[in-house]
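Hi R.,

Here's the chain you asked about this morning:
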Amino acid sequence: MGKYIIEFIGTFFLVFVIALTTNDPQIWAGGGTPFAPIAIGTILMVMVYMGGHISGAHYNPAVTLACWINKKIASKDAVTYMIIQVIGAIVAALAFYFIFGRVANAPRPMGGFDYNFKPMLVELIFTFALAMVVLNVAVSKDVAGNSYYGLAIGFTILASAYAGGPVSGGAFNPAVGIGPTLVSSMLGGGSFDCLWIYIIGPFAGSALAAVVYRAANARENL
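And the predicted structure, written out as tokens:
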């Protein structure tokens, strides 16, 4: 039970910080702070250090998928993790709504990009990077016990948010897409029109990373 609680807590804080730093004009003039990626990468880093020794600190269904493909997590736990992560994201979006009286904006493509394969490709590419980093610094037996895994994961999201956010909205995590979108649709008149970008892109990127990791670490899998 402890690992499920950790997955909930970590995902909650990740999504709550995203909401606070990127979504509401009452908090930041213009709708968000330009330093949002720093806050997001930092909260992910500290939450990874907080829960890594208990749950593995996935906080992301795409990361859980990559670990499951490489047999680093049992199927039952993988499914439960994904459910808990989505619940954590929903609760975070509801907490934002309760505090500010309005829904947090769900992730959407930015910079004039339509809801097509281009934002989805950006989500795929940077989720691939995230999953590769997680697998190689936090999962691989070759680096077991290292002290830098949280930094590597947090900085991956920081860089990805700065680079990919202006195109795709920068979720790189199906829970980040699902939770705010569901709450926005139920309580704020939002829609599900671009949710597929934040499900297909991240899951495809993590699956690709899992395959590449398995091929690159064939010795470990013998």
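The chain is about 70% helix and 0% strand.

Let me know if you need anything else.
M.
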